[in-house]
Amino acid sequence: MSSFFDKFTIDDLLDEMEAVYLNDTRPWIIGYSSGKDSSCVLHLTFKMLKRLPENKRHKTVYVISSDTLIENPIILDFLKYNIELINKSATEFNIPIEAQIVYPEFSDTFWANVIGKGYPTPKSIQYRWCTERLKIRPSNKFIKEKLNKEDVVVLLGVRKAESIVRRQRIQRKEIDGYLLIPHDTLHSKDGMAYIYSPIVDFSTDDVWDVLFHNNDNLKNFNGNLSPATEWGASALELFNLYVKGNGDSGECPFIADESSAKSSCANSRFGCWICTVVKKDKSLTGFIESGHEELSPLLDFRTWILDERDKPDNRKFHKRNGAIVKKNGKVTPGPFTFEARKMILRKLLETQIEIQKVYKKDYKLITTEELREIDKIWCDEEDLTSSELIKIYKEVTGEDLPWSNYKLPLFEEHTIDIISNKCDEFGINMDMFTKLIIDTNKYKYFSNHKKLKESVDKTLNQQWLHQDIIAKIEEEDILENGDNLEDEN
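Given the sequence above, the corresponding structure tokens read:
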């Protein structure tokens, strides 16, 4: 594989980066994941700014990293450590770099969607709802806040050599003769985002060559001096993370759009410990086999939820909006049932207690803020007692949640038993009846009953409630139209 440095020098690249930096006042935003590629871009940026006179360091470089709240804890610790070093070094050298971590909204985290709304854990790139919510939205929110004021330049550590798919995607977007490429979706009436990929032509060896050899810094690592990044992190420590994580895995990079996501984070890369898109998480397994046995409870949980995911009893047969989806004549399973979601929460809290014994006492697999959001979702959709989540948390942890004493049940448990028995007696679906009761209670004080009527109509007209009628109509259409109907579909 050819090297970038067969034709160019490191100074050639730094000259290019300097020209782009000095060309205008547009702030830079670097997507930093703490992996080798984004580290290389940040290292080069530091190096370029250090050699500039202070009076020419005229605009801020924002370094943003994504914490999905389900990151591999070893990688997350490394990321947070680097963010601190970056800010400290920027201050020390009077370089206009500001680093921070962005997070998903608590109402839209992985567990809020899985345990709260019942979303099945993703098993394919086509149904990977998590990347958009956990990585793209938080990063893009930060970028768009800058766009409200002016154009920005986003630096990404993408490389053609990463994969054939990545190379093709980059080449489709390239504009001959231009270093900056307009972003497909990141723009507003007041600003536009442009993508700059300084290491796009680097090989993997080029990346490590820059991190190990194109610097004058040394860092004490395991008692020995080793090459360091421009902000003072050990390059050897980064390299060892790749070795421990089964070296060929790669990093789960900063993602700027969904097209990037389709070729990223899906092949055993450093990233979310719960990722079920891959059959085997080589990274998590690699860390455990290399000595990080404290991560074993995470792998056990991931294996467990993969098994529970596809059990018919754990899934509804319709989507959250009530629609029934068929594939090859078979009904596609919908979200997790309420019982399954309670089971997942209980197992997750038990796993959290287990890993706290061997990793960190304050380490959380699910935050209190996420639990609050899940509680809201349950009470808004399923939980007539308004206390299921609080009860599970108390039973598993022995502790009360901050809002435990402020929740009042809609009905006492014996009343709910009566309702359930009556639903069975008259053949009424309990899920539907529960939703009607909750919505009635929600809108009962509204002087205008339009909201309640709309909500009731929506619930009563969901497709799954009328599946017998729909199936009969479909059967009659097939008998009447024969193959013609099949041809139209």
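DSSP finds 19 helices and ten strands in the chain. Try to locate this feature in the token string yourself.
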